[in-house]
Design brief:
This is ABC transporter ATP-binding protein. The chain is of the alpha/beta class. The chain is built from twelve helices and 13 strands. The structure holds adenosine-5'-triphosphate.
């Protein structure tokens, strides 16, 4: 971890991946002054719209691209000095996967296994079974999703200490996505660090412990997913035996769009639903439905440029604007 006061790198057993003011300038676009710190066993989502700089960052982590400025530490080493060993200890899925077209999936995985000093066949078979990989057809004849599954298997197959996945769920059907998410969680539970880049929060929300959001090459925020959920907006609908008093709900902080129809009350709540539930509890509550937190709204606000118009027509942006803070 980088000690901001002393300016020195403090090596912690926990930090598996760190960058300090990492910069790659492709003439005004690229990555600028990026500070990241990812702990061992953490699932870290790296989010940003197209062109935000996610792939460029990943390339610098693995020394495929050299930074113009700043520092990188991956698995305790500088990839510019120890690139081959860092890459050997890392499982990597690139954003544009290219495999040997004429070979079958089985041949590709066998070849990569040999390059890495031997294949753990039982584990590779298990990965292929879980992700439902097509092993016996030439890779060039496979669909995007089926190619992607081979890319995922090779990233996990050598039991790396760190897994870096650039847009991992591209083309995967929902069942395979679910299995992939289970695999990521299990991998992290075994102490392996997983770094996932994505355009959308929905892709990483269920598995990531923390997310960093990048926009135009710069870090907007790093936040725990659980903390984001606390700030999210959700719709609450309840039915009560007595007619609810609309004003009591409308008076609550963070509660808006209150509607009462007969014995049914609905409202939009920012953050905790606690205050609303306490007002509800003055009635006999017959049913209560709390929608799952919608984090997309927060993220869309972060993706927007500050100088652009409010995408939500100028209404209250409180939750989205309150939040960005380093959660460490
Ligand atoms: N080799 C390069 N030469 C010039 N510009 C580049 C190069 N590589 C990336 N860029 C530019 O740097 C910016 C960041 O690109 P990058 O591919 O890292 O974004 P990304 O967040 O991965 O986007 P996407 O989600 O679309 O893959 C873009 O404006 C891109 O055009």
């Amino acid at each position: 971890m980088h000690d901001r006061d002393s300016g020195w790198w403090v090596v912690t057993a926990e930090a598996v991946l760190e960058t300090k003011r990492l910069t790659k300038d492709y003439g005004g676009v690229g990555v600028f002054d990026l500070d990241l710190s990812v702990r061992r066993g953490e699932v870290f989502g790296f989010l940003g719209p197209n062109g935000a700089g996610k792939s460029t960052t990943i390339r610098m982590l693995l020394d495929f691209v050299r930074p113009d400025a700043g520092e990188v530490r991956v698995l305790g080493a500088d990839p510019r000095v120890a690139g081959p060993s860092v890459r050997a200890r890392t499982g990597f899925l690139p954003s544009e996967l290219s495999l040997w077209g004429r070979s079958t999936g089985r041949q590709v995985l066998g070849h990569l296994g040999r390059l890495r000093g031997g294949l753990d066949r039982a584990w590779t078979d298990e990965l292929c079974r879980r992700l439902d990989v097509e092993l016996d057809r030439p890779v060039k004849s496979l669909s995007t999703g089926n190619k992607q599954k081979i890319g995922l298997v090779q990233a996990f197959a050598h039991r790396p200490e760190l897994v870096v996945l650039d847009e991992p769920t591209t083309g995967l059907d929902p069942l395979v996505q679910q299995e992939f998410q289970r695999l990521v969680r299990e991998t992290a539970d075994d102490g392996v660090t997983v770094f996932l880049s994505s355009h959308t929060l929905a892709e990483v929300e269920r598995v990531a412990d923390r997310v960093a959001v990048l926009r135009r090459g710069r870090l907007v925020t790093t936040e725990r997913v659980a903390a984001l959920k606390e700030l999210a907006v959700r719709r609450v609908v309840a039915e009560t035996r007595e007619e609810p008093d609309r004003r009591a709900f409308a008076a609550l902080d963070g509660v808006r769009d209150v509607e009462v129809e007969g014995h049914r009350v609905s409202a939009t709540v920012e953050g905790h639903v606690d205050a609303l539930v306490k007002v509800l509890a003055r009635h006999t509550v017959l049913s209560l439905d709390v929608e799952e937190a919608d984090l997309e709204e927060i993220f869309l606000a972060m993706y927007q440029d500050q100088d652009q118009d409010d995408p939500r027509g100028g209404r209250d942006r409180s939750s989205a604007e309150r939040k960005p803070q380093e959660a460490r």
